[in-house]
Design goal:
Distance between the termini: 36 Å
Mean pLDDT: 88
CATH architecture: 3-Layer(aba) Sandwich
Strand content: 25-35%
Largest sheet: 7 strands, mixed
CATH class: Alpha Beta
CATH topology: Aminopeptidase
Low-confidence stretches: none
Shape: globular
């Protein structure tokens, strides 16, 4: 049976579903509001949210945050599709470099062209994010990729 996959921008009405999926994956939600989830892209399969990814945009710099794929939809390349869609959207908005913090996905992001950076190499815009200052632990791996 064919499934209908769509990647779309999140809307404020998606807030509860976004928070639920992020919470189940033990990803931070403390700083999210209905307005801030508008910066997320959702992957839906047959109208069910199967995964999501967020972008915080700071002129030519972006912070990729909160990539998650529901366990029922993993191992099908959905994470890669979401990252590619976010990179394309970010580049279209003038972002030239994407940064991220990860606890356990650094090898996976490395396969997508992201390289590890020392925390003191982070740009000021990234250092000032809630993710950098408080949501992600100090041992989170900092990575970046030029678009």
């Amino acid at each position: 049976m064919a499934h209908d996959l769509e990647i779309r921008a999140a809307a404020a009405v998606d807030f509860d579903a976004v928070v639920e999926l992020l919470s189940r994956a033990s990803l931070p939600v403390e700083d999210l509001t209905a307005d801030s989830v508008i910066g997320f892209l959702l992957a839906t399969i047959d109208d069910t949210i199967a995964g999501l990814i967020g972008l915080e945009h700071f002129r030519e710099t972006g912070l990729l945050r909160s990539l998650v794929v529901d366990p029922a939809f993993r191992r099908a390349g959905l994470g890669r599709l979401l990252v590619a869609a976010l990179e394309s959207q970010a580049a279209g908005q003038g972002v030239r470099e994407l940064w991220l913090l990860t606890i356990d996905a650094d090898a996976w992001f490395g396969e997508l062209g992201y390289s590890t950076r020392q925390r003191d190499q982070a740009l000021d815009a990234i250092r000032q994010t809630v993710d950098f200052t408080s949501l992600c632990p100090g041992d989170a791996v900092l990575m970046a990729k030029s678009l």
